[in-house]
Structures are given as C-alpha cells and as structure tokens.
Amino acid sequence: MRTPGRAELPCLCSGVAVRRGVSLRGGAAALAVVLAVLLTGCGGGAGASAKTSASSAPADAGTRAAAAAKQLATNSVIPLKGEPPTPELPVTVDSSDGRKVTVTDASRILPLNGGVAEIVFTLGLGDRVVGRDITATFAEAEKLPLVTKAHDVSAESVLSLKPTVVLADTDTGPSEAIDQIRASGTPVVVLDPAGKLADVSTRTTRVAEALGVPEAGRALNERITGQLAEARAAVPKGSRPKVAFLYMRGTAAVYLIGGKGSGGDSLLEAAGAVDAGKESGLDRPFTPITSEALVTAEPDVILMMSKGLDSVGGTDGLLAIPGISQTPAGADRRVVALEDGVLLSFGPRTPLVIDILVDRIHRT
C-alpha cells in the first residue's frame, strides 16, 4: 500500500475541529496571556531569545490549547518580530536533486509548496512572494496567483510571474515542468519533504539559507524549539495514551491506519502519546484498516484530519466502520480532528498543533 503523498492531502488551514463536546478551558485573562506568548513571546527577530517572560506563569494544557486553537482559527502565520531581514546574496546551496544552485536575487520568490511558503512568510519575506501552489491556503497567501492545476505545477504560469528563485520539494511535479523552469535560467532549489517533527528545523534552515537570511532562520528555529518545549512541559505526568492516526476519504473508499513514518507518529510522540499503529507493529506509513488491525492497535484515542472525519459522516459514521466501535476509543467516542493543512504541515505552526494534542489526547 503506497503512502498517501503530500499532494493527496487537502490543505485547508481554517482552524481546528475537536469532536465530542470539547470546551475551551481557562479564564479570559489566562487565555489572553497565553495567546500573547504564542504570538510574540517565543522568539522575535533575528537573534531573539526563545524564552518567555519570567513573569508569565506556566499555562495549563487546556489554556494553551485554547490559545493555539484561537490562533489557528485566524488562518494566519506569525512572522518574526522586528524588521524583515534583508537577503545577503549571492549564495550557493545544495539542492535535494543533487545540484548546487546559486541564488543571486530573492526579490521575487515562488514557493511551490504550502509548508515552504509558510516558512518564507514567517521569516518576514512574504512581500517578496509572487505566487503560490494549491497547498498554500493560509490567509496571507490566498490572494496570490495560483500556479498549479490540481496538484500539478504549470511551468507557463510559474514563468509568467518572472520569479527570481523557485523553491520546490522532491515530490513537486511533474518533473517536465520543473525542468522547463530550470531551463529558463531561474534558480530552482529543491528541498526534502517534511515528514516528521525533526524535519521542521532542517527545512527552516535550508529555506533561510537559500534566501540569504540564515540569521532569521536561526531565530525562527529558536522560537519553534522554545514553543515545542513549552507544549511538552504541559504533558500530564504518567499519562501515555495510545492514539491511532486514521487517514480516511470516505467518498473514495480510502480507509488507512498510520504506522511508522506516517508523520502522525512523530506528532504523537512529541505530545506524550504512543502511536497505536506503530506500537502494534505496523512498519509502513499507512496500512488499510481491518478489524483485526484495530483490535491489535487498541487505541484509547483516534486522531484524524477534519475533512477525513467529515467524509465518513462524522463521529457517528466513523463508529459504523467495522472494528472502530470495538476499540476503547470508539467505545468512549474519543475522536480528535484537526484541520488537514495544519496537522501534517511540519512548519512554524506545528507547535500550536502539539499544544492542542497535549490537551485533547490526555483528557480522561
């Protein structure tokens, strides 16, 4: 069974959905404090510290999750504080397609991946971005010209925008389009896809270096590292729930359970949980769901993308799928759903995802 590619995962970054009567805990004052920390406290401009104010009391998981959900609902990125960085060019960087690429001008940037676009905007270079692909759905990018048809890049659309540098993934295609863009003389820097939490810092560093703003990249990584540490600190001691990450598209009869390398396993580990599929011996990223596999996995909680849950008719429809209701998660209706474009984005907003998971999956 082939792992669903990034191009197959719809990216709608409008917020967070949590099923089964989840409430946003914490008082308004506490929520305001935590939201301020999430927006500005964990790193600013180049060289800023990732530490929060010493006067800010640690927030409980529920309050942090409420603030994270509020921020994600804005569908906006959070740029580094301070003045936007000025690219220092030219630079020559390694491209993941085996080439060395020299970038001499970053005045017209075209990221061909939503996660990469998010990094560019968060670094403070959003005003230099001239177009987007279909996966860049956050508010700052949504009005930019679209250069993809379905998930395929249109070389003609890209070249019409006269980019001075193009940022792509190894799975960006078709390859003929990338070759055509490169043949025009436009520098094309290819990056490895981000599939786990550890890839966030690597990808941020590579994007920042390719655009001539390595110091801003270090500042962003400091901010992300600090936010992740704070999210993990809210994990209840002794709590290790088993969580099954399910990928479903009911209209296409796609019903998969995540295992090793799904991306969900990395997020769940960071949130203090056990990936039920991986724990049960599933050594592929995704495996077709069977009743036997679900019984073996025995999840306490089910994690899904919100569009996937909607595609099977919500929680009631999910429980009608053979084997789901026989799991502890199904019996207790413990289903957590996060927006498709945010859950596996592995970018600057991933710490907000961890904040929400820490709260939702550890509830009893």
TrEMBL record:
Pfam families: Peripla_BP_2 (PF01497). Residues 108-364 form the Fe/B12 periplasmic-binding domain. The keyword Transmembrane helix applies. Keywords: Membrane, Transmembrane, Transmembrane helix. Belongs to the bacterial solute-binding protein 8 family. The chain crosses the membrane at residues 28-48. This is ABC transporter substrate-binding protein. The keyword Metal-binding does not apply. The lineage of its organism: Bacteria, Bacillati, Actinomycetota, Actinomycetes, Kitasatosporales. Residues 76-96 are annotated as: Disordered.
